[in-house]
């Protein structure tokens, strides 16, 4: 199938914008490959240190004949998605030896759980944990004793952080290894209903806790389609998983065999063979476009409007919100997964999952089918479904139609003709809005502003009944420079309640919303942010704010002379405690959301 002309045009735009940086990146990777980043050129004392921690693999390592795979793991057992990785390294070492390779845990990286920190001070470390993970990945791989790597990570900042760091070792072949989602518990729609009841004071804290524990009940990724599961969809579309690995449950034979295959595939695509597939060449402009398309076609998390530009930037690739906006107009919505529907990711997987979506998009010329994936059979393999047959891992063709067209549909019968992402621009700056889960009669909201400087103030005003009206909630000083750009997920229940009561409600913020947010129109990632003089700092209570996702505008309806004369609100002092003061350098050095909201990349440009 020929490429859709707009997909081709957007890709060409990205290639042109990236031309110089991408070439410098590729030149750097060639120098890294040529500089002796392999074990035979290291000193004997250096090698002895590297081998001292292992007994069973030492003799194999000394021969230097097989690949040594560096494992970078985000394991911890307070994050359900990453608790699954507990036994992975010891299993991976066995599976590597089966094909004459070895494997070592090169290092661990932090993996915080946004679900635990939502609404509390730890959330202000969340976004910058991504840069910390990237640096941790670089430290892990800096020993230069590895010919390939396996990256164990799933959730929000972990996958982007691993990739940002790993791409600076892009001369190595690498694979992303997921752990899979927990099995379905309390339905997500019911969970949201209970949260709204609690926000209204209709049920007790104990009843709320019972519901939450029933929803988040075991090891594995959370089952809603938030940032973590959007990560997995994107990794499939970039060809960095074993095909179809994203949403296979933990503890199954299929999950185990996919991980075994991933380890052994890394050993096959090293530089000593005839199928060399380095990460830096796999992640090119086409792969980045595929990731953006996958996100739009599935109604994925808005957090990736920050993360994907940052991942791309680490590989010398420039993608901005205009590219997302243009793609969204031609990429149809093929799934309805919570919060954009009632189904969870297990139902999505059962209905065809990522392979079905990728097959349909590729068939329509809306994905690049010629990317350099890690799969032996090329990118077409990502449109097939893995299974265990006769105790062996196989990939099967999918049926022409989904097993559940209330969850996944074909390209000829989408849920909607576009992806549901828009840019908003006006005298308040430039923001994003996701409308795939917003009712069409709420795509335009015009109402008086109520201004806050943190989400706790919004919650207090809601409880006091001060927001029982048409209102645009403006929550500012929530950008990366102000406080690390925490997600404002605690605003979802009260704003949802106000909307359910019939009020016209919207949120405008220079912060982020959770990847699980949906039905309330939210103009987010507003740039420039309030701190440093962004226009959102001029808004006053009572100003009429217009959020217009149809025209793509975001305006404070204030006389222009008065607007120009207004002073900016004073920023609150930097918060202390919970280690936030240790991240001051990251806040001070961060760039705007559209560039990736990264201090690391702001100072590591190619």
From TrEMBL:
<dbReference type="InterPro" id="IPR056740">
    <property type="entry name" value="ILV_EDD_C"/>
</dbReference>
<dbReference type="GO" id="GO:0004456">
    <property type="term" value="F:phosphogluconate dehydratase activity"/>
</dbReference>
<keyword id="KW-0408">Iron</keyword>
<dbReference type="GO" id="GO:0005829">
    <property type="term" value="C:cytosol"/>
</dbReference>
<feature type="binding site">
    <location>
        <position position="155"/>
    </location>
    <ligand>
        <name>[4Fe-4S] cluster</name>
    </ligand>
</feature>
<feature type="binding site">
    <location>
        <position position="222"/>
    </location>
    <ligand>
        <name>[4Fe-4S] cluster</name>
    </ligand>
</feature>
<feature type="domain" description="Dihydroxy-acid/6-phosphogluconate dehydratase C-terminal">
    <location>
        <begin position="407"/>
        <end position="597"/>
    </location>
</feature>
<comment type="similarity">
    <text>Belongs to the IlvD/Edd family.</text>
</comment>
<keyword id="KW-0311">Gluconate utilization</keyword>
<comment type="function">
    <text>Catalyzes the dehydration of 6-phospho-D-gluconate to 2-dehydro-3-deoxy-6-phospho-D-gluconate.</text>
</comment>
<keyword id="KW-0411">Iron-sulfur</keyword>
<dbReference type="GO" id="GO:0009255">
    <property type="term" value="P:Entner-Doudoroff pathway through 6-phosphogluconate"/>
</dbReference>
<dbReference type="InterPro" id="IPR004786">
    <property type="entry name" value="6-phosphgluc_deHydtase"/>
</dbReference>
<dbReference type="InterPro" id="IPR000581">
    <property type="entry name" value="ILV_EDD_N"/>
</dbReference>
<protein>
    <recommendedName>
        <fullName>Phosphogluconate dehydratase</fullName>
        <ecNumber>4.2.1.12</ecNumber>
    </recommendedName>
</protein>
<dbReference type="GO" id="GO:0019521">
    <property type="term" value="P:D-gluconate metabolic process"/>
</dbReference>
<feature type="domain" description="Dihydroxy-acid/6-phosphogluconate dehydratase N-terminal">
    <location>
        <begin position="68"/>
        <end position="376"/>
    </location>
</feature>
<dbReference type="InterPro" id="IPR020558">
    <property type="entry name" value="DiOHA_6PGluconate_deHydtase_CS"/>
</dbReference>
<dbReference type="InterPro" id="IPR037237">
    <property type="entry name" value="IlvD/EDD_N"/>
</dbReference>
<keyword id="KW-0456">Lyase</keyword>
<dbReference type="GO" id="GO:0051539">
    <property type="term" value="F:4 iron, 4 sulfur cluster binding"/>
</dbReference>
<keyword id="KW-0119">Carbohydrate metabolism</keyword>
<dbReference type="Pfam" id="PF00920">
    <property type="entry name" value="ILVD_EDD_N"/>
</dbReference>
<keyword id="KW-0479">Metal-binding</keyword>
<dbReference type="InterPro" id="IPR042096">
    <property type="entry name" value="Dihydro-acid_dehy_C"/>
</dbReference>
<dbReference type="Pfam" id="PF24877">
    <property type="entry name" value="ILV_EDD_C"/>
</dbReference>
<dbReference type="GO" id="GO:0046872">
    <property type="term" value="F:metal ion binding"/>
</dbReference>
<comment type="pathway">
    <text>Carbohydrate metabolism; Entner-Doudoroff pathway.</text>
</comment>
<keyword id="KW-0004">4Fe-4S</keyword>
């Amino acid at each position: 199938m020929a490429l859709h002309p707009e997909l081709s045009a957007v890709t060409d735009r990205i290639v042109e914008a990236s031309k110089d940086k991408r070439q410098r990146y590729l030149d750097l990777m060639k120098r890294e490959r040529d500089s002796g980043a392999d074990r035979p050129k290291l000193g004997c004392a250096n090698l002895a240190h590297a081998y001292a921690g292992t007994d069973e693999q030492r003799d194999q390592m000394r021969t230097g004949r097989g690949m040594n795979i560096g494992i970078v793991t985000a394991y911890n057992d307070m994050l359900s998605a990453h608790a699954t990785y507990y036994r992975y390294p010891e299993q991976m070492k066995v599976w590597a030896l089966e094909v004459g390779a070895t494997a070592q845990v090169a290092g661990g990286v932090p993996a915080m759980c946004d679900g635990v920190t939502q609404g509390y001070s730890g959330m202000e470390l969340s976004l910058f944990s991504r840069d910390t993970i990237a640096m941790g990945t670089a430290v892990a791989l800096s020993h230069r004793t590895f010919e390939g790597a396996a990256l164990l990570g799933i959730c929000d900042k972990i996958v982007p952080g691993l990739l940002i760091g790993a791409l600076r070792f892009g001369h190595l072949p690498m694979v992303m290894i997921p752990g899979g989602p927990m099995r379905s518990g309390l339905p997500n729609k019911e969970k949201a209903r209970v949260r709204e009841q609690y926000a209204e004071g209709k049920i007790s804290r104990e009843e709320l806790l019972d519901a939450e524990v029933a929803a988040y009940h075991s090891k594995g990724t959370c089952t809603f389609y938030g940032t973590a599961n959007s990560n997995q969809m994107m990794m499939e579309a970039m060809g960095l998983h074993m095909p179809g690995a994203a949403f296979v449950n933990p503890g199954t034979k299929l999950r185990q065999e996919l991980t075994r295959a991933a380890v052994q595939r890394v050993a096959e695509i090293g530089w000593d063979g005839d199928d060399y597939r380095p990460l830096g060449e796999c992640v090119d402009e086409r792969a980045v476009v595929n990731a953006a398309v996958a996100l739009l076609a599935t109604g994925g998390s808005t957090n990736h409007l920050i993360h994907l530009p940052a991942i791309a930037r680490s590989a010398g690739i420039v993608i901005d919100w205009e590219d997302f906006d243009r793609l969204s107009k031609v990429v149809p919505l093929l799934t309805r997964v919570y919060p954009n529907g009632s189904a969870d990711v297990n139902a999505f997987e059962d209905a065809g999952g990522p392979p079905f979506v990728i097959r349909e998009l590729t068939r329509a010329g809306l994905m690049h089918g010629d990317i350099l994936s890690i799969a032996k059979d090329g990118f077409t393999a990502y449109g097939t479904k893995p299974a265990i047959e006769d105790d062996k891992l196989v990939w099967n063709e999918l049926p022409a139609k989904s097993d559940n067209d209330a969850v996944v549909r074909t390209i000829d019968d989408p849920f909607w003709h576009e992806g549901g992402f828009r840019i908003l621009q006006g005298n308040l700056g430039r923001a994003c809005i996701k409308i795939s889960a917003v009712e069409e009669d709420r795509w335009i909201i015009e109402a008086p502003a109520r201004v806050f400087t943190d989400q706790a103030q919004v919650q207090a005003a809601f409880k006091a009944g001060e927001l029982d009206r048409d209102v645009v909630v403006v929550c500012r000083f929530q950008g990366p420079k102000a406080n690390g750009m925490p997600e404002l997920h605690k605003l979802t229940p009260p704003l949802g309640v106000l909307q359910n009561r019939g009020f016209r409600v919207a949120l405008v913020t220079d912060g982020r919303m959770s990847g699980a947010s949906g039905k309330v129109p939210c103009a987010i990632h507003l740039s420039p942010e309030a701190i440093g003089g962004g226009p959102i700092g001029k808004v006053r209570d009572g100003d009429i704010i217009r959020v217009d996702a149809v025209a793509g505008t975001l305006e404070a309806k204030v006389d222009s002379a008065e607007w120009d004369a207004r002073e900016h609100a004073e920023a609150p002092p930097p918060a202390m405690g919970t280690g936030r003061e240790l991240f001051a350098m990251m806040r001070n050095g961060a760039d705007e959301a559209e560039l990736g909201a990264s201090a690391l990349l702001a100072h590591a440009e190619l």
